[in-house]
Structures are given as structure tokens and as C-alpha cells.
Amino acid sequence: MISLAWLLVLLPLVGTIGWFLGRRGGERRGGARISRLSATYFRGLNYLLNEQQDKAIEVFLQIAERDRETLETQFTLGTLFRRRGEVDRAIRLHQNVISRPGLSDDQRTRAILALGEDYMRAGLLDRAETLFADLVKMGAAAPQALRHLMSIYQAERDWQQAIDHARRYETATGEPMGRLVAQFECELAERAWIRGDGALARRHLERASAADANSVRAALLEGQIELAEGNDAAAIRAYERAARLDLEFLPEVLPSLLAAYERSGHPARARGFLLEMVERYPGVSPALALVRRIEAEEGAAPALAFLREHLRQRPSIRGEAALIDLALRSETADPRGLLVALQQINEQLIVRSPGYRCQGCGFGARAHHWQCPSCKQWATIKPLPHVATE
Known about the structure:
Blueprint (H helix, E strand, L loop, with lengths): L3 H24 L4 H18 L3 H14 L4 H13 L3 H12 L6 H18 L2 H14 L3 H14 L3 H15 L4 H17 L3 H14 L4 H13 L3 H14 L4 H15 L2 H14 L4 H14 L1 H14 L3 H13 L5 H18 L3 E3 L5 E2 L15 E3 L7
Antiparallel strand pairs: 1-2, 1-3
Helix pairs in contact: 1-2, 1-4, 2-3, 4-5, 4-6, 5-6, 6-7, 7-8, 8-9, 9-10, 10-11, 10-12, 11-12, 12-13, 13-14, 14-15, 15-16, 16-17, 17-18, 18-19
């Protein structure tokens, strides 16, 4: 079966050729030329349906050569050449289109855009930049040209130009670009910090947060800078904000945040934050950090009681290992009670762990399926050796 990507590329070409043949057929119904073109068209379509793309392209090129008025065919072929990696052919084709007399402004703009895309694919970013910048100055196809320019400046790591053009693109289209601008500002902040200019780095981070109030990266960078400069209170605020913005970054934040809590002498704040994270974060990291704090402040017995209750609700292998380690250090631990707790944790781990996994898409299942419920492939689900079940 022909791939969807090829179909999407070639359908406009086939439609254009079909329209062309129908128009010509109406004008010269029964003519020998149209008969030849029709035969050529259907031969090319047959090659296409049989996935003989090289032969199909050659046939469609013949049709394009016979009638150079089919501008849509030229554009489609140029796109096809570019996607196949034949960039030189695409460049020559689009240059020839641009040099045609009598093109409308829209047609010339489209050809320049296509040539710029060819240059980008060939790695000739300076030539592409010149074409797209000229289009923006003329006000022609500004959104497309601006988007291409953003891609070029990102590739060149010219972050300030990328910011300027992202803002222009937002003005032209109304599409919010704050999240992208925030990433660019963070890149500039990192660059300034590496050069030792902490003040400039902070200004870029302020702009990043103004562009995207939910920028986790800006909060993380702020925490790193403040921590490196010994501003523990500011680092704590930044790291707490980063964790609340995206819980999945909590493991990245936690070691530095705990160290800042320790140095600044805010045990109550640390405990309150960890309790909040234990409730919200599905993993065991904040619970283990809280257990260590409870042990330091109240002793091993309260820490053991908290961890046992937590693991009863959210069993984990790391938590189980921590429970054993804590019990070994405790002089008052009840051996039988510990064994009962471990048995309950293991039973829940076994029940919750998938016994089978699809080797195609990674879908996990507790029962075997010959056809994967997720990706619908056959015979890809296999028994899963697992530390919790084997």
C-alpha cells in the first residue's frame, strides 16, 4: 500500500494533471495529443499506485515538460524533489519558475518561498535568510517567511533575532509565541551566566517569566544562579516555584532545594513543602526526604510509622528498601510487624506490576493478549520478567 506521506505529496500533482487533461480534453476532445497525454497520465498513476515512485516521477516530469503552463505541477515537483533529497533539482526548478515572465505577485512570492525552503534544506542558510527577509520587507507571505526566519535563527543560535521575529510573527498572526520566546530568553540567560554576568542573566530570566509565567526552565535557572551565589532564600523560592509549575521536575529540584533548606535553617518550611509534594507527586522521592527529616527531628519510630503507612497506600521498591534500612537502624522496630508490612507491600507491587509488555509500542498489561490493545499489532505482547514478579 502506498504510504500516507507519498500520497499527501503526490495527490495535488495527480489532481492538477487530471484537471489539465480534462480541460484539454474538453478543448480537443478525441485529439491525438490528449490521447497520448491521457495514456502517459494513467501510466504514471499506475506506477504511483504500485509504489514505483521513481518511474512515476519521470512520467509526471514528461507531462510537465509538454505543457509548461502547468505551474502547479512545477511547484509540486519541486516539493517532491526537496523531500526526496534532490535539492539541486528543486533549486533549479524553482529558479526557472521565478525567471518566468508574466508571473503574478502571488505566484512569484510562492516560488521565492519554495526556493528559500530549498536553500534551507541544502544548508545554505544565508541565502535562505536573504530571500525570507526580503519577503518580510515587502510584506509578502510575511507569516511563512517569519516562521522560516525563526527556524534559521534557532539553527544559528542567534537568540535575539529569534525573539524579535517571534514577536513579529505573533503580531502578524495573533498566534501566542510566549512559550517559545521564554526558551530563547533562557538561552540568552545561560549564555550571560557562563560569561559571568549574573545581572544580565537575571534580566533575561525576568523577560522569560514575563513571556511565559509557567516557564519551568526560567525558574530552574533562577534557582541555580541564586544557589551558586549563596542566596539560599531566593533559590528556595525559585525551586519551589519550579516544582509547583511541573511536578515531574521535582526529582531534579529536590537535592538542591533540600540543601538550601538545611543551610538557611527553615525546617518548618521544608517539612511543609515536602508534605505538599507527598500529596501531589506520585513518586516516592518526597516521601523519603520527609522520612529523613522526621527521623532527624523525632526519631526512628515516628519515621518508620509514617513510611509504613505511606507504602501501604503507594508501594514502591525504593520505599521498601528505605523501610528495611530504617528498621535496621531502629532499636525499637518490631520484627514481626516489619515482616507483615513487607509482605503487604510486595503483594501490592505484584498486583500492580504488568506481567506482559508489547514489544512494539510498550503497552503494559496484566493479562496476555495476542493482539495489542494499543497498537493493534499481533503476537507482540510477551511475558515480562520483572523484579516485582520474578
